[in-house]
Write a structure and sequence with these properties.
By secondary structure, the protein is of the alpha+beta class. Helix content is about 35%, strand content about 30%. Strands 1-2-3-9-8-7-4 form a seven-stranded antiparallel beta sheet. A two-stranded antiparallel ribbon has the order 5-6. β8 and β9 form a beta hairpin.
Amino acid sequence: MLSMKTMIFGAVLVVASLNSQARIGETEAESEKRYGKPVNEAMSKMSPILSGAVNHIYVYQGWNIKTAFVNGKAVRMHYFKHTVPMTIKDDEAKAVLEGEANGGQWEVKKNVNWNNLVVSKAWANTNGAVAYVEGLGGMLMVVDTPAAVAFAQAKKAEDEQKRKANIPMF
């Protein structure tokens, strides 16, 4: 019988294979070609956007783009503008959404609860991805895929299993 971890890992592989046409779904080499070499690898390891995944930070035309890779493909991206004003404007969010459409169509959602965050600017894509603007004054835009969510859930279950296995016999 398959374990829950094996089933979730399999789901991650299937979903990740569907996301192979745009920035989400790109390999590390493709991302490096698009954005340049990753920077600040120490910060990527200290503050990952997806624990247990390969995390990189790219600096591109006034933006920091943090990317999490699972099975060699980008599954979660954080866009942070480091120029003034730092608030992500609607036309900038639209540019991110167009770049991250990955063959799907974005639809505006109102007051979405995603990953225990209630956000007022959010979009859902027909390919299963979601995007939202969060942070103080709307300074961070997140693009997330079902593969990222499945990976995070599998990692959490694995960590809990390890924790339980390490409970001493008192």
